[in-house]
């Protein structure tokens, strides 16, 4: 129970950036509407709500949560602003309009995320407000605070525990005929996934449905979740993205081969590891995010792999990385020309795939620091699985 | 590994109900846009997609999935319709409009769920379509097919396994001073939750962040997820809602007291169990869902508990149940005047709470059958925890 991930205090969100966005647009307020799966709302409120809509309103430098019924206690505990229960049962867009009116603004421009539910947008427009979408929240989420970094380090430590569990099982497995056997039965992608997920659970984080385990050809299918029995000599690709304290995600990938005879798998592994290190070397404040991708792609090309392969083809079929925070995928993308800043957190995950043979991906989660980068929880890399 | 929950085939969705809705509204098509957290899309497509928007289109009796980039293989595997990759990278609303145009309809009425993202709605309107919201999908989801019932039975069996784990731990715990101790350390709500979640993981289902464990006064806070040490004599309330095969949820609650001295906890338990049985007795085809709630409330009132208490007050503070399917909360609500039909699945979960003392809730997941109801995986009830 030591280092329980949820013993961390919840990060707070400095919502002054919304006031700046409102000033710049000459807008009277900001409204977000969504449910527990809306990560902007989670970031803005730190409220872990239910699977029905609620609303956040910012106006006059103050923050209001129109909380769902039966959640007043939890909202009051988690949200550092005014919890409003007026109109519980009404649509969240209606309640948001009433919360705005309570500030004395009954017309004018209101900023909203572009994905606000259509019915909420219609309710706000009917109440007399004009809507304009803003990227202010996504922009604010790009750079993490120290408290957010602590959450990310902690959940990534859980990802490492899951990976260690998987690597240990692979190292303990024995070859019988054409199959890997572990604890008396055939070892499958599904068995491995369950063991990893159980490790996450005991450590207090959720697998969030993101535990990808591929074997041989299915490694080339980036989101494979089947039940294949594992074979010696083939790639076993694990991509673990648990969700931990206060909704922050980890992300870690490793690829192992039990009883390899070298060949394609070994060459792919060496190339991917070189691409990973080349990409990591690029990361520093002021660097262009797109250069991190270009470095990885160039290194893979140098090893003879197609750096621009399409899905289903042989080569590098995806981008080198994406931001991670309260969403598993957020900014920055390493394909975009974004200037890296201290506090940005993203994955670096080159990979090469061959639908006929297998796939290799290695992934680290990194934070940009004042003078370079920090790998959020180091975990040794190895082609052959090892016990501790 | 026998009876692995994911060895079930995915249910198929008969989407003819959409054609009926289109005919009735004289509409040219139906469009849904969302991401992996949109359960209507999951139901319509059986595609378990990523955390970025994609689109489903129905027109001319045909179904199209505008799949996200990097997901063509998975979409083709999971979706029984046309997978369209045209315009990958464009907003999902734009792609949906283009998919409609490919049917030869470039104007007219399009039905959408009311929560379609606002930007998608705007893209469709700009492309020349008029939008009207429909409840057709939610209505179709009310009655489950046999394949859906199989998924629900299977995940509820996992909920039972989690509950058995929790009950066993409570039964094995020892009283030391004012605390419960298990395996050498104080037993807390968090430790109990982790053990339950690990059991889910090994059984191949996800806790989905829904494992509620309350202790004493925190049982009255319906969504409590703290880290209290458990005390003898107080209520320990477990509400388990794992997500299993093909996205279907289970839902099961029990309340235990270790080393009870009777009193409020015992009286509350007896009342809640009577209310649960009275409510279950009401369930049959043709019955009014609201009567199920009324029966439970009347029984609790007969035992002296306030059947209409507000949140934070002593008594019965919530409804008696909600539908369960690919969403944890869907129709029917047992507060609404809905005529029960065979194939409807919902929780029955009366409870009484006292913020000063504790809370008791007992919950079964039931399906309406041709001549009554089926409890989806029976699990014995007990006030004092027992080992198997």
From TrEMBL, chains A, B:
Sequence ranges assigned to domain Peptidase M24 in this UniProt record:
151-370
Q: Which residues cross the membrane?
A: none
Q: What are the protein's UniProt keywords?
A: Aminopeptidase, Hydrolase, Metal-binding, Protease
Cite the Gene3D superfamilies for this sequence: Creatinase/methionine aminopeptidase superfamily
Which GO terms label this protein's molecular function in UniProt? aminopeptidase activity; metal ion binding
Which PROSITE patterns has this protein been placed in?
PROLINE_PEPTIDASE
Protein family: Belongs to the peptidase M24B family.
- Protein name, UniProt field: Xaa-Pro aminopeptidase
Species name = Halogeometricum limi
């Amino acid at each position: 129970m030591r280092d329980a991930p949820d013993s961390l205090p919840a990060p707070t969100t400095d919502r002054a950036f919304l006031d700046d966005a409102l000033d710049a647009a000459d807008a009277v307020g900001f409204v977000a509407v969504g449910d527990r799966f809306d990560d902007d709302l989670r970031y803005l409120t730190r409220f872990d709500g239910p699977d029905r809509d609620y609303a956040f309103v910012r106006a006059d430098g103050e923050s209001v949560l129109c909380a769902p019924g039966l959640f007043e206690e939890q909202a009051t505990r988690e949200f550092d602003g005014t919890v409003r229960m007026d109109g519980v049962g009404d649509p969240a867009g209606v309640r948001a309009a009433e919360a705005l009116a309570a500030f004395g603004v009954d017309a004018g421009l209101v900023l909203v995320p572009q994905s606000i539910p259509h019915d909420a947008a219609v309710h706000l427009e009917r109440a007399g407000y004009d809507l304009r979408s803003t990227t202010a929240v996504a922009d604010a989420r790009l750079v993490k605070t120290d408290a957010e970094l602590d959450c990310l380090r902690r959940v990534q430590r859980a990802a490492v525990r899951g990976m260690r569990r998987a690597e240990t099982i692979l190292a303990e497995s024995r070859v019988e005929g054409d199959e890997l056997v572990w604890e008396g039965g055939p070892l499958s992608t599904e068995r491995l996934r369950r063991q990893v997920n159980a490790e996450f659970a005991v450590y207090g984080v959720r697998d969030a449905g993101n535990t990808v385990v591929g074997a041989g050809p299915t490694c080339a299918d980036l989101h494979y979740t089947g039940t294949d029995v594992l074979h010696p000599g083939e790639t076993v690709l694990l991509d673990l993205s648990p969700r931990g304290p206060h909704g922050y995600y980890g992300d870690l990938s490793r690829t192992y081969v039990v009883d390899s005879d070298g060949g394609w798998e070994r060459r792919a592994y060496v190339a991917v590891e070189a691409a990973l290190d080349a990409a990591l070397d690029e990361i520093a404040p002021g660097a262009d995010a797109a250069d991190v991708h270009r470095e990885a792609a160039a290194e893979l090309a140098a090893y003879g792999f197609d750096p621009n392969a399409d899905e289903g083809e042989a080569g590098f079929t995806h981008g080198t990385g994406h931001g991670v925070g309260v969403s598993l995928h957020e900014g920055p993308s390493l394909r975009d020309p974004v200037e890296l800043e201290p506090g940005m957190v993203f994955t670096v995950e080159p990979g090469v795939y061959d639908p006929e043979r297998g796939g290799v991906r290695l992934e680290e989660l990194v934070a940009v620091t004042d003078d370079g980068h920090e790998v959020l929880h180091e975990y040794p890399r190895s082609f052959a699985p090892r016990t501790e």
